[in-house]
Structures are given as structure tokens and as C-alpha cells.
Amino acid sequence: MSIRSSAGTKRVRLSPEERRLQLITLGAEMLADRSLEEVSVDDIAKQAGISRGLLFHYFASKQEFHEAIARHVSTEFFTAIMPNRDLSLFDMLRDSIERFVDYATEHSASYRSVLRGPASVTPDMADYVNETRGAIADLIVSELPLPPEDPDLARLTLAIRGWIAFVEETILTWMVEKPIGREDLVDLLVESLPALALSPALIAALRG
Amino acid sequence: MSIRSSAGTKRVRLSPEERRLQLITLGAEMLADRSLEEVSVDDIAKQAGISRGLLFHYFASKQEFHEAIARHVSTEFFTAIMPNRDLSLFDMLRDSIERFVDYATEHSASYRSVLRGPASVTPDMADYVNETRGAIADLIVSELPLPPEDPDLARLTLAIRGWIAFVEETILTWMVEKPIGREDLVDLLVESLPALALSPALIAALRG
After folding, report:
1. Is the pLDDT at B146 greater than 50, yes or no?
2. Which CATH entry fits the domain spanning B3-67: 3.40.50.300, 1.10.10.60, 3.30.530.20, 1.10.3720.10?
3. Can you tell me where the transmembrane regions are (chains A, B) (predicted)?
4. Pairwise CB contact (< 8 Å): A161 & B184
5. Which of A77, A131, B10, B164 has its CA 20 to 30 A from that of B204?
6. How far apart are CA B81 and CA B129, in angstroms?
7. Mind listing the pLDDT tens digit for each residue in A2-54?
8. Are strands B3-4 and A10-11 parallel, antiparallel or unpaired?
9. What is the CATH code of the structural domain delimited by A69-207?
């Protein structure tokens, strides 16, 4: 059986997994201009050309649907910037930052909303955003050749956490007016991590 | 005539200016756990021991009252960190950052809420926060001995904007667990600005 949307366009039949992803993706796109609570089940079902009842076949409740959207947005972003471990440390940093800039640029409206706008204050969404920031910080700290008892570790961990906010804000500001080119932006972000967080001795050790 | 609160405590009569400030301050304290829209005129009037009608004697509308609260919070913060121009550039930076940390610590609940919580998404409040960030960035750029046509100015301005987010996030994270002492935090924040934003040549010129 093929499914037709309300506009009568012929639709390919989706597997349950594909349908779930389609509904979540439609929901994630809506975060561009509204909070998670304002993502309407009726609107999503209409856009997907299915009934409200069928949507609840895939998600037990509106709350579960919203939670799935929040998780999806965070996972998609974190996956997009995952480091390529075939590269040297500094190349790995540049490569991940380039993908960070690309992700933010390609999802600019929802990225801004999730970090600063209506979508940023739902506890679910805010928790996922915070967990993602923590996961990025842990990832960076784990790459550094520091013993766990290093006395600078507490300061370093704090600085890296602050650096993630630096990257987010710099990209958000850059996207509005693009005062410098993309390559200059990437340079600034790459150079900022050692500048903010690392001691000269640690930088020398990393450069080997 | 002396005004008594609902609890019967004797109150000193306030001048119109003092009353206005009292109402705004009560509203600003409420931002610790709610958005600007949720600051209730009835609750504020009750806390101040005045009638709802009298509150509207000082503010033409609920909207105007909320706007006054948002403006007050931003102005109070900006005033708290204003640089002391009797100091040298680096001492001025340290002195302002110490007051930044003190302000955030003394207003921790409302500071967090205005930047990250329920109070952060009201357009009025978000606009004031953004304007304050812009004003801090302008203040810093204006202190630097750079000609307006300097080719690095666009990158520097962007970096300083990101640095403000670094300071905010680092302080917010620090306030939760205090992983390092206050002096170490101040050192980290002070050192981060030249490390991040300035070229070695500019740092040498400033120290000169």
C-alpha cells in the first residue's frame, strides 16, 4: 500500500524505522522557531501525511516524542563533530571544528534556537545540550597526555568547558554578519583552544 | 503616613523613586526561578505591601514594568563591572573581572536564570543581555591601541565577543562545584583575554 499525503502526492512506503526518523526529523526542523513543548503532534502528523493515531503508534506519548527529538538533535550534532582518530591531534581539532562550523551553518535556525532561542529552555533540551557540552569536554581532556592527578587538570577542565561556549558564541555571531571568511573563522577557533586552555609546556608536548 | 505590609510590619514611607526601585528589585529577584512574563504583578504588590493599583501608578502597564526589570538587571550588571580608568590596562581587566565574579556569585540564581534559564528567552531580556555583551565588547575594543582600519579588527571583535561567552560559561560552571579557588578562576579569566584575542605584538605594545 502506498501512502498519500493530504496534497495527494504519491509517497513511498516507509519502514517503521524510516517513519520514526521522518517524524523526529520533521520535529527537529520545527525547533527553528519554537520550543520543544510547542512542537505540535498534529502539525507533524499532517506534514508526514499520517494520522495522529499512527504517530502514537511510534511514540507512546507526546512527552516521549519530544524527548526523542531532543536526543536526536544532540546525537546528530555530536556525531557530526566526532574526531577522526587517524589524524594528528591538531589536525583532528581542525577537522572537527570545520565540521562544527558546517553543522551550525547547515542547521542555522534550529542551532540558534536550541542554544539561545525558544527551544533552549525546555529542561529536556537544555539537559541534552549540557550533556553534549560535557561529552565534548571529556573527549578533549581524554586526548591530552595528562595524568589524572595533574594539579592543572581542574583548571584545564573548567577552561575547556568555557572554550566550548566560546566556540558556540563565536559561530553564532559569525553566522549573522560573516565579518571574516570561513577559513579565518576556523583558524580563530582552532588557535583558541590552546590559547585558552593549555599551558605552553603542554602545547609543546602535543606538538611533539 | 506610614505604610504597613500585610504582615503588619511597620514600613518606612518610600519616595516615588525609592518605591519604583523597590518594585523593580523585587521583580529582578523573582527572575531567579521564572521568566520575565511570569513575574506576577500581584505577587510583587503583595510583597511590597501595596495594592496592584498603586503598582500601576509607577508603571503604565505590566509590559512596561517587565521592561524596567530587564533594563535594571542589565544596567546593574554593567555598572558593577565598569572599568576603573585610574588603573593600567591589565590591572583594569583584573579589577573588572573580580567584580564580574563577585556580581555573579552574589546574584547566582538570577544570573544563571537570565543567561541560561527561564528568564533568558523573553525577547526583552535576551535583547538587553545581548546589548550588554555588545557594550562590553565595544568597551574592550575601544581600550586597544588599534587604528579603525586595522585588518585584524574584524577577527579581534569576533574573538572578544566569543570571549565574553567564555567568561560567562566558565563562571557559571565554576559556581556549581568550585573546582579551583576564586583567585585561580580570576587568573584564568584575566589571562584568557590576551591569549585569545590579541597578537603577541599587541600584547607587547600594551605592556609597554
Report:
1. yes
2. 1.10.10.60
3. none
4. no
5. B164
6. 14
7. 444 444 445 668 899 999 999 999 999 999 888 888 899 999 999 999 999 99
8. unpaired
9. 1.10.357.10
Question: Nearest-CA distance from B168 to chain A in Å?
Answer: 8
Look at A170 and B154 and tell me if their CB atoms are within 8 Å: no
Q: Alpha helix (H) ranges present in chain A? A: 16-30, 41-48, 52-58, 62-80, 89-106, 108-116, 123-143, 153-177, 182-197, 200-207
Report how far Cα B186 is from the mean position of its chain's Cα atoms.
17
Question: C-alpha grid cell for residue B86?
Answer: 585610574
**Whole-angstrom distance, CA of residue A158 vs CA of residue B169:** 9
Band (B199; pLDDT cuts 50, 70, 90): low
Question: Could you tell me which residues come within 8 angstroms of residue A32 by beta carbon, excluding any fewer than 6 positions away?
Answer: A109, A110, A113
Mean pLDDT of B190-197: 86
When CB atoms are compared, the residue of A121, A164, A185 closest to B120 is: A121
The span from the CA of B197 to the CA of A115, in Å, is 23
Hey, where are the domains in chain A? 3-68, 69-207
Mean pLDDT on B28-38:
88
Which chain A residue has the Cα nearest residue B129?
A116
